[in-house]
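Weekly modeling sync, notes
Attendees: S.R. (lead), two postdocs, one rotation student

Agenda item 3: backlog of single-chain predictions. S.R. asked that every request posted to the team notebook include the full sequence so nobody has to chase files. The rotation student volunteered to paste the first one in as an example of the format we agreed on. Action items at the bottom.

Example entry:
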Amino acid sequence: MRETDVADRKGFRQAAAVAAWLAKNSTEVGSVWASPLRRAQRTVEPIAAAFGLAVQTDARLRERMNWNEESEISLEGFLAEWQRASSDRTYRPTVGDSSSDAAERFIAALAAIGRTTRKETVVVVAHGGVTVDSLRTVAGGPAVNDASADLVENCVPCGAITRLQVDGDVVSVNVYPSISHVDEEHTTGPRNRRLVFRANNVSGRVPGRRSERSRRPDRRWGHVRGL
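Predicted structure, as returned to the notebook:
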């Protein structure tokens, strides 16, 4: 959520671990996309390099809300606004978008990206808050809470992969955020480190998994949150 010019070594290790896992487990990657925010651009670099692809950017993948020292509200005010927007999905915060609006643009971006590739897998690096917003819209709040009781409060864990399926304009969830692919040393540490550098990648084929929907999808995705 917070922009910083300080490189986070732990974050770079996470990004490298995600890139290695995707290179081993994802096939037929057609494109790699990222939010324009600095932390997403830094996270996507090793992932794009692993597949020999250029990074493409879509502003709709940005986080729901962002804060830095030049923001019009204090950090404390920002965090209060974040919590209110998470509780009331229609609330429009002082900076950024409502949870519902952020999810709508994010899902629209995934659908548009899906139409640009002929291959089955796309990797997208974005952010933890907007990913949870989108999961709540796609699957419903109760399903998200059942998958992880603290997902709404704490967002997607650093380095997590979420696998989604895109069929035209319809996005469905295959696998909720998971960090099983990242070594423990890359994911432990103070929770507030999450604010420094974060990314989610919507990508990845899902071996052996079937969609919750009966119709076979056109695109399969997964999602990774980085630093």
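Discussion: group reviewed the output briefly. The chain has seven helices and seven strands.
Action items: rotation student to repeat for the remaining queue; S.R. to check formatting next week.
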